[in-house]
């Protein structure tokens, strides 16, 4: 071989060795990338990518092998308006309950795991799943929850007043306005004041001299309904994605209030709501009145079953004759007044009416047709002897709470409205159920055929027992004993609060809502019409996506 060829081969070998050395770091990074991608898929922050290594791999960065020491938080603060508490430390675990923005709760020990818990870069050391003292796990370090320290300064939302009938302050909307994500400009305020949709203007300006009379319009076929102006629905009221408007508000809607915020730029005053929106103060009127009616807590001696509440605007006490064959008016009894009936008494039948004797004077009685009657009810066979359960009589409009066999509380309620018009009928379903979730407050809204959309933020003391039907406090009326609702069981706020904290499942300290789980720990709820037996009890199948 000539010297020229030997020189060529030597140069070629040197080039091949150099290329192989340059390729090695790229190959190493490529082999590590699957672990990093898997970690990100589990929800970890990108800053944790340096902790991922392949099996048997080594690194010169000590932080990749040994995490910097830190002092685990003893308390965390909820930042989101809805912070889930999971039954196990995974994002896909069933819900145990949830926290509300501003809540501070205690945690036990250090973090349990970081898997599926997205963490912000500045909280990578502390971030992960923590177990609450009351049970359940919260992902800490992301957008929803963060460590809390006494030195922290947070503009916390007003927390619910658990010892009051009403947990928040409320306002009713008059006119049309909007809830904004941030302080709007004056132009944005003007554009959303007294807003009106284009479809509401359709045919809206027609006068009485129009060629088509109103009688002919009423006779239009269903195919022409699209040409008529329609009212907005709930879906229409939602703000545009990414826009400054969260949602639009109409007359008669209610919002729960946090605090006043004054803006020089907008030259306006806003109420920040508990849901985080900013609503101009002008169209809001503070709701400062609600029913002070209270039911009766029974001690078994001074108050016991049977018990009656005057439910008539013109109710009387009657004097029963000595032979029990006639009754005469004695005196008027104010509506909603509680009346203790004689123990172990039977009704007196006079003509077509039934009368119940009072305990204070057996010669005085109330007419059954004028009162809501709470009587002893047999405990259903499927209800355990040591359970707290709730009986709701739709005929009497009375709720009675039982501890085993003993009645401990009775009050008037307002259940679903009845109507001959099917679209205005909101019957409360009869049946045997269990409370499956409890909420200090939750928003209730919907579309009605006659009145259009409605929305009530933070309805207080809510206990769901069947689908979207619940027992809850109502501050917007005080017609207890009369059917008023869209199907739920309305109670006076003070009564609803008493029942909320008495019934199961118990609400852990600091939680805003709790779900029953799989142990059937929720209090039984029996809904019936008078003496008609309700449908048999069927255990509810819990869904992992239950959020109401």
Structural class of the helix and strand makeup?
Answer: alpha+beta
The portion of residues assigned to helices is 10-25%
Q: In order across it, which strands form the biggest sheet?
A: 2-3-32-28-29-30-31
| Number of helical elements | 7
Main sheet attributes: strand count, strand direction, barrel closure? 7 strands, mixed
Structure description:
The chain is an alpha+beta fold and 548 residues long. The chain folds into four domains: 71-148, Roll (SH3 type barrels); 169-202 and 218-286, no CATH class; 306-374, Roll (SH3 type barrels); 388-528, L,D-transpeptidase catalytic domain-like (Beta Barrel). The chain has helices at 3-41, 62-65, 186-191, 198-201, 214-218, 234-237, 493-502, and strands at 75-78, 83-86, 95-99, 104-113, 128-132, 137-140, 145-148, 169-173, 177-180, 245-249, 254-263, 268-273, 278-280, 284-286, 296-297, 307-310, 315-320, 327-333, 338-340, 348-350, 353-357, 364-367, 371-374, 388-393, 398-403, 406-412, 431-434, 437-448, 452-466, 469-473, 489-491, 513-515, 524-528. The strands form seven sheets. A seven-stranded mixed beta sheet has the order 2-3-32-28-29-30-31, covered by helices on one side. The chain has a six-stranded mixed beta sheet with strand order 15-26-25-24-33-27, with helices on one face. Strands 6-5-4-1-7 form a five-stranded antiparallel beta sheet, with no helix packed on it. The longest helix has 39 residues, at 3-41. Mean pLDDT is 84; it is low at 1-5, 8-66 and 203-224.
What are the SSEs and their pairings?
Layout lengths: L2 H39 L20 H4 L9 E4 L4 E4 L8 E5 L4 E10 L14 E5 L4 E4 L4 E4 L20 E5 L3 E4 L5 H6 L6 H4 L12 H5 L15 H4 L7 E5 L4 E10 L4 E6 L4 E3 L3 E3 L9 E2 L9 E4 L4 E6 L6 E7 L4 E3 L7 E3 L2 E5 L6 E4 L3 E4 L13 E6 L4 E6 L2 E7 L18 E4 L2 E12 L3 E15 L2 E5 L15 E3 L1 H10 L10 E3 L8 E5 L20
